[in-house]
Design brief:
The protein is about 45% helix and about 15% strand. The protein is of the alpha/beta class. Helix 6 packs parallel to helix 9 and helix 8 runs parallel beside helix 9.
Length: about 250
Amino acid sequence: MYRQLQVAVVIPAFNEQRAIGEAVATVPAFVDRVIVVDDASTDATAATAQAAAEARGGCVDVVVHEANRGVGGAIVTGYRRALATGCDVAAVMAGDGQMDPHDLPAVLDPIADGHADYVKGDRFRHPDVWTAMPPARIVGNVVLSAATKLTSGYHHVWDSQCGYTAIHRRALEAVDLDDVWSRYGYPNDLLSRLHVAGARVVDVPVRPIYGPHWKSGINLGTAPPLSWVLLRSWGNRLAREVRARRRAVAAAR
């Protein structure tokens, strides 16, 4: 428990047998439940995660997808498990060790303080970003973050591709998880849905980590589908907001 909140950490993993054991072992002890979602890996990710779970003790779930659903699909599975087990907050940490466990309290604090429903890590507010993050990633993240400011409606949010997040159950329950984009572009789509739901979103600085197990998700193949996801989420957000305003006007009459 952290500041009277039951906390789950969701760890999506695909072919992370080299890193998943350490990722599970280093989750802070105050976390009530660790949920590893193996997204149909072809290596020993699930077995390695299970061994780490047994060594760690406590509440650790290892969920295995029979077919690959994408990182967004894996996170949604973890969110559903967190809700089902009664957790107040679900944080997301990567299975490749790209997120510093020491940053988790800072990610949880705005929710514990009652200031946020969804908290995002912002690597650009950390002093190490310019030396730790590869130059191509800096350029890609800046472009995508600028586009997501427009499509999501959260003009103050930066580093949209950072997956280090925490969300309160009330925000999860306000979003149709069945309809969230499941693959690359998931965080951009989720932000637009949270905006329609009226969720308060806060950025906090987190340390950028690019270790030996890091694999980039940005390449020439992801650009066209991600552009489509951004346009889709923007259009859906505007349509939902128009419908919400019409309902409010009708109710006021």
